């Protein structure tokens, strides 16, 4: 299906700053980092191939820039939908003579295309730079291709899932909050529960299981100690497919009268509100306990932080009025 140029131009107009950032970050992470690393390697003659491979591997995994890649793809999804509902662009796009599914797919195609082009292009430039300076054996030892492909698939999964979240949220802030929370949920909730048990006296608690990391989308971009293998990449591919299909369906059903609210579908409030309140409480409890808690006061500071975070989250999520709730259902 061809995406109308009018829709593409409109999407570019409202997200051009994020799109620029999405191109700049891979350039800094790959070609610029490769140039600086080559200058350093050229001054350290006599090192082993394994040493060179370790340096090259660090560049071709974009260490130091992975967080920024995740941030920009989530922001891009939020600008496509959350900001659109906030600044009135959504009402304008609804006047276009195109199906809602076409409008949603245009955002996905533009975002995925820009991400893939910038990431693949920057990686290939850095790869060619190392080859042109005679590091063929070190590149072969580093074997960056599996990690490169898994990372790219993970980034597309993060973007598509964040776009899907935007079909149930009513503004950019709630989309960002739920996108980050859900993306980090599998490994994040395990870590938070473990910290909760530790504060309450539990000992010999297990570390985060490797399989749980494979269910956490950012793991495919940021995990450098145990690089993600392509054998696990069916998980972000499945997330991408599910998010794209459900995103199209929900975007077609999303009610315009809830634009600006935390959620577009009132029936989702009980579950999501409970999850956000508990999550915020656990996070602020751990934060306050680690910053201020010492000795016997650790438990006090933990529960103080828990209550402050939970109450703040409760006040943040405003349930729409009964008049609005009665007019729309999922």
UniProtKB/TrEMBL annotation:
InterPro entries: ABC-5_transporter, ABC_transptr_acetoin_YtrC/YtrD. The chain crosses the membrane at residues 16-36, 65-83, 104-128, 148-169, 176-193, 229-248, 268-288, 300-317. Keywords: Membrane, Transmembrane, Transmembrane helix. PANTHER family: ABC TRANSPORTER PERMEASE YTRC-RELATED. This is ABC-2 type transport system permease protein. It comes from Alteribacillus iranensis.
